[in-house]
Every structure is written in structure tokens, then in C-alpha cells.
Design brief:
Layout: H1 17-36, E1 40-41, E2 47-49, H2 50-57, H3 62-67, E3 70-72, E4 78-81, H4 86-95, H5 98-101, E5 105-114, E6 126-135, H6 141-156, E7 163-168, H7 172-187, H8 195-203, H9 214-220, H10 232-247, E8 252-254, E9 268-276, E10 279-288, H11 292-295, E11 303-309, H12 310-316, E12 327-330, H13 337-349, E13 354-356, H14 363-372, E14 377-380, H15 383-388, E15 390-395, E16 401-405, H16 409-416
Parallel strand pairs: 1-5, 7-8, 12-13, 12-14
Antiparallel strand pairs: 2-4, 3-4, 5-6, 6-11, 7-9, 9-10, 10-11, 14-15, 15-16
Helix pairs in contact: 1-6, 6-10
This protein binds histidyl-adenosine monophosphate (HAM).
Histidyl-adenosine monophosphate is lined by residues 84-86, 115, 117, 122-124, 127, 129, 131, 133, 260-262, 282-287, 289, 305-307, 309, 311-312.
């Protein structure tokens, strides 16, 4: 056994070629669904100024307080590996003056994010998100469309039976009334709170509803619900949102104590939880953030979005089988290799996925390799075939084998592939 000199960093993971086909499938399904809803891709840097995240996500959140990979670079700049995509997207939106040229922007992204959380199943330090942001759109049509797009995508990747749980965080007045109610409720129960929540009670009481510590979770059931503080307008928005989801057949449930772990949310927030072998996981979270563009120096702009955790999604969907190879070329030795090289080139030019065993070896071992690669068709080029100007083609699914003239080999292979 060899001993590796280096190992991956704790909480980070390799996605090996045995898995990447499934990732590619899921990502391309996501891109196709996003395009169908009028979303275009944005690619933003992985590194941003640390201040961007503190100002967007909030100093009092776990992400900014404990989980960011931040450092000073050689030039003395404070930089952070992005823990999420929204802050960078909004930074780009403002920096490139998009609001002055485009009234509504619908952007999506796929890429790695970094949070120094305690690693466990479904929680990594480098993970991937597929997200979408709609900027310039008031509630609730755009919010509902995000949820419908998500449900559509989940359907495409075989994640059936998911429910969108949502809540309305209200406007700033409603939120400050709600904060007061939370202070009143939790103030009398301070001794039962975890240390973080004792501090949150002073700094940001909404965060108390998001605590995962058992004693705090137990208190949540009796806590005041946001609905008690919502304005009539907010309640009407919630009603329209629900009606739009019902109209589209999207399963949803109002969750009156739902808050998300980022401070930029202002209106409807939501999450999607699914059951996995290792317990329930939240595969997606999002919501409205009508103040963020303004907070980052842009004009006041209503906006909403979500991000899907791709690792969690991959662990929740049915297995995606690895696609087999189209064609494997069998050669007994160097005398056939020029004919094999020509056939491979012609096949690949015709869009046929083709391979050969570069080590050579016995015909039996090459056939084994063809089998292992899941080849649909095997082409055999022995001296006899080359002399006769033919190729033997074996259909691996039926076992049928036939000789075809070399000039017709590609047509013959395509036919057997059903193309
Ligand atoms: P978030 O709720 O922090 O929201 O993350 C979204 C999703 O990313 C989570 O539901 C989860 O599936 C996944 N995720 C988060 N942390 C980890 C981790 N350590 N390991 C694996 N997966 C993880 C946001 O990031 C917002 N930017 C979403 C958004 C976009 N809101 C508006 N626009």
C-alpha cells in the first residue's frame, strides 16, 4: 500500500470521476430550467472584500461571526472566500450600474462556497450552490416564480414530494414590533437559553428562532409568530403568493416561526427540507431582500432569490447511472493500430464516444475492459478484417456480430447505437 503524503482539508471533499457525471446532469438540468424561466448566468469571483459579507449577511450571523475563511493578502487587503453568492451578485449588480440599463435582472449561478462549519453529513466547508436572484421585481409574483422554478427543477432531478415552507418577515416596522415581542417572551426565559442566544437577545432577537441548540429549539414552539405583527398589505401579499403556488401545483406550507440564517431578508423567506437516509436536510433556502441593493450603494431595488445546496441535493435524489461508452475498438497488436486510430478518429468526429485499451493485451482482456466501460458496440480489427477491408461489429446488447465494409463502419455503428 502506498501512503499519501497529503490529504484533503477537513470538511472539503473531492468529487471523483465516478460521481461527476451525476453532477453534470444535475447542473445541466438546472441551467435548462433557469433558461426556461428567463434567467441568465452570472459568474462572480470566489474572493471578495471581507466588508461586503459583513455588510450584507450581518455581523450577528453565524456565517460572519464564526464561519468565514478570511485573511489578509500580501498587499494587506482583507479578503474572504465567499460563503454564499447573493452578496457578490448584488455587488456586481451595483458596480456595473445594471439598474440604470435593465429594469428587471434575472440571474443564476452555480459554484463553490466556503463556510468553516463543523463538518458532518450534508455539511461541508467547501460546498456548491446553484442559486438564482431576481433584481428589480416586487413581491409576490417573482417570489412565487422562484418557488415554481425550484419545484420544476426538483421534478427534473427526481426529487419528488418536497414542500416549500415559507414565512413573511414583514417590513421594518413589523419586524421591530416582532423583535419587541420576542424580547418579552425570551426575556423571562433567559436562564434556559444557550450562551449564543443570551447574546442574540441583546443584539438580534430574530436569530433566536434559528438556533439549533436543543433547549432553545424547545422554547421556539411557544414563541410569538411573525403573523401577529404583519401589516394588512403583508398578509395580502402572502395570500397572493400562496394562491400562485397553488395554481402551479407547488406543495407549500406556511411556517410562522421560520427565519433564515442571513440578516438581509425582509419579506417572504422560504426553505425546502427533504428526508434522506441520515435524517431531514434543508436542500434550499432563500427569500426577499429589498434593502440589500441600497445597503451596497445602489438605488433602492426590490429583490429575491434562493440557493440550493448541491451536495445535499445529490444525496437526496435517486442515483444517476453512469452513461456507458458508445464504442470500444479491439486490436490484437501493433499491426492493427493505424486502422484502429483511423476508425477512432472517424467515430469521434461523428459524435460517437469511442475508446481503446492503450495497453493492448489479449483480446479477452480487452473485451473485459469494453464490458467494464459499458460499451454498447465493439469494433474488432484483426489482421483478417484489415486484409479484407472490413470491420467486425458486435452489438453488446444483443450479442449479434457482423462484418461491414470499412467505408460503412461508422454508419453501421450509428445504426446499432440507434442514431
Ligand atoms: P443559505 O440558507 O445560507 O442561503 O444556504 C442555502 C443552502 O446552501 C442551504 O439550504 C444548504 O442546502 C446549503 N448549504 C449551506 N451551508 C452548507 C454547508 N456548510 N454544507 C453544505 N451545504 C450547505 C444562502 O446562501 C443565500 N445566499 C440564499 C439566497 C439567495 N437568498 C437570497 N438569494
Amino acid at each position: 500500500m502506498t501512503q499519501p503524503l497529503f490529504q484533503k482539508i477537513r470538511g472539503m471533499h473531492d468529487i471523483l470521476p465516478g460521481e461527476t457525471h451525476a453532477w453534470e446532469r444535475v447542473e445541466s438540468a438546472y441551467r435548462a430550467v433557469a433558461a426556461a424561466y428567463g434567467y441568465r448566468e452570472i459568474r462572480i469571483p470566489v474572493l471578495e472584500a471581507t466588508g461586503l459579507f459583513a455588510r450584507s449577511i450581518g455581523d450577528e450571523t453565524d456565517i460572519v461571526g464564526k464561519e468565514m475563511y478570511s485573511f489578509k493578502d500580501a498587499g494587506g487587503d482583507d479578503l474572504t472566500l465567499r460563503p454564499e453568492g447573493t452578496a457578490g451578485v448584488v455587488r456586481a449588480y451595483v458596480e456595473h450600474s445594471i439598474p440604470s440599463s435593465e429594469p428587471v435582472s434575472k440571474w443564476y449561478y452555480v459554484g463553490p462556497m466556503f463556510r468553516r462549519e463543523r463538518p458532518q453529513k450534508g455539511r461541508y466547508r467547501q460546498f456548491h450552490q446553484a442559486g438564482a436572484e431576481v433584481l428589480g421585481a416586487p413581491p409576490p409574483f417573482a417570489d412565487a416564480e422562484l418557488a415554481i422554478m425550484l419545484a420544476d427543477f426538483f421534478g427534473h432531478v427526481g426529487l419528488a414530494g418536497s414542500t416549500i415552507r415559507y414565512n413573511h418577515l414583514g417590513g421594518s416596522e413589523a419586524r421591530s414590533r416582532f423583535r419587541g415581542k420576542l424580547e418579552e417572551y425570551y426575556g423571562g426565559k433567559k436562564d434556559s437559553l444557550c450562551d449564543d442566544c443570551k447574546r442574540r437577545l441583546e443584539t438580534n432577537p430574530l436569530r433566536l428562532l434559528d438556533c439549533k441548540v436543543e433547549s432553545c429549539v424547545a422554547l421556539k414552539a411557544g414563541a410569538p409568530a411573525m403573523r401577529e405583527c404583519l401589516s394588512e398589505g403583508d398578509v395580502a401579499v402572502l395570500g397572493r403568493y400562496r394562491a400562485l403556488l397553488d395554481e402551479s401545483g407547488v406543495a407549500s406550507a406556511e411556517e410562522p416561526r421560520l427565519v433564515r440564517g442571513l440578516d438581509y431578508y425582509t419579506g417572504i423567506v422560504f426553505e425546502v427540507e427533504v428526508a434522506t437516509a441520515s435524517g431531514p436536510v434543508v436542500v434550499c433556502g432563500g427569500g426577499r431582500y429589498d434593502d440589500l441593493v441600497g445597503r451596497l450603494g445602489g438605488p433602492s431595488t426590490p429583490a429575491a432569490g434562493y440557493a440550493i445546496g448541491l451536495e445535499r441535493l445529490m444525496e437526496s435524489i435517486p442515483e444517476i447511472p453512469r452513461p456507458g461508452l458508445d464504442l470500444f475498438v479491439l486490436v490484437p497488436g501493433p499491426a492493427s493500430e493505424r486502422a484502429a486510430a483511423r476508425l477512432l478518429r472517424e467515430a469521434r468526429a461523428a459524435g460517437i464516444g469511442a475508446d481503446i485499451d492503450p495497453r493492448g493485451g489479449s483480446m479477452k482482456s480487452q473485451m473485459k475492459r469494453a464490458d467494464r466501460l459499458g460499451a454498447a458496440v465493439v469494433a474488432i480489427l484483426r489482421k483478417r478484417e484489415i486484409a479484407a477491408g472490413v470491420v467486425s461489429i458486435k452489438d453488446m446488447r444483443t450479442g449479434d456480430q457482423a462484418e461491414v465494409p470499412s467505408g460503412d463502419a461508422i454508419m453501421g455503428i450509428l445504426e446499432r447505437l440507434g442514431r
